[in-house]
Amino acid sequence: MGGTFVIEVNDLQKSFNGHQVLRGVSFRLPRGVRFVIMGGSGAGKTVCLRLIAGLIRPDSGQVRVFGKSIERLSEEALLPVRRRMGYVFQGAALFDSLTVRDNVAYSLHEHTNLDAQTIAARVRHLLSLVGLDEGVQDKLPAELSGGMRKRVGIARALAIDPEVMLFDEPTAGLDPTNSKMVADLVAKLGTGVCDTAVVVTHDIELANAVADQMAILIDGQFAATGTPEEVHSSRDPGVQAFLRGEAR
Ligand SMILES: Nc1ncnc2c1ncn2[C@@H]1O[C@H](COP(=O)(O)OP(=O)(O)O)[C@@H](O)[C@H]1O
Ligand SMILES: [Mg+2]
Fold this sequence. Notes:
By secondary structure, this protein is of the alpha/beta class. It has one domain (5-206, 223-243): Rossmann fold (3-Layer(aba) Sandwich). It is built from 9 helices and 10 strands. The protein has helices at residues 45-52, 75-82, 100-111, 116-129, 146-158, 176-189, 204-210, 228-232, 237-243; strands at residues 5-16, 19-30, 34-38, 60-65, 68-69, 85-88, 164-168, 197-201, 213-218, 221-226. The strands form 2 sheets. A 6-stranded mixed β-sheet has the order 6-7-8-3-9-10, with helices on both faces. It has a 4-stranded antiparallel β-sheet with strand order 2-1-4-5, covered by helices on one side. Helix 6 (176-189) links the parallel strand 7 and strand 8 (197-201). Helix 6 (176-189) packs parallel to helix 7 (204-210). It is globular. The two termini are 34 Å apart. The relative contact order is 0.17. The site of magnesium ion has 5 residues, from helix 1.
């Protein structure tokens, strides 16, 4: 394994309470590529992202991020690695008691020495990147629509200027208009903001809109992987059933 990949995952296995969720997942993500992992509910998509971010540890197998093995790093040693990744959690997961401004600025206050004026300018910039105007800055998450909350979650993950973005179901729970907006935003980030990403989703429309490479996670393994064209032309019956919408 060389240093040319942002993420390298090799033969990952993970069980919970005797239930084996991942049974040997492997992939390599070069810089500048958006990789979409699809799979039905409970397939292990969130588990994959949490393993990549070092939030949980594999039973066996390796995770290398930015060329460094992370599967046995201490919490402390993981922090500088995590600060290079932007994690957009399933359901946005904003801090309910903080305004939009403070949600987006959170990691800038925590992890940088930037002065208040610089942070304020960066927050404005991030909100405009995700298509939100200044008026939302003083609002609380509960005052926003689901689509807006999702965009704030993306702005917050972008604040640290990550080298790779990890998106967990960015369109889940959104109506078709907002889903399309978020898909367009994920694609737009690839043009100059953060061009490397792992997106996990059960949403085939999103996958088709943003994927350079994709994989379908079935029974703990990638049943198909490659370009969207390659995956769509897979003869695997499980893959075909998933793509027809029978296994989501
Ligand atoms: N911390 C945990 N403890 C026990 N079981 C878990 C845990 N995290 C995930 N699982 C189980 O692993 C499986 C995959 O979960 P998950 O990755 O969240 O699925 P999804 O593909 O819907 O994101 C599910 O059966 C879930 O119940
Ligand atoms: Mg999930």
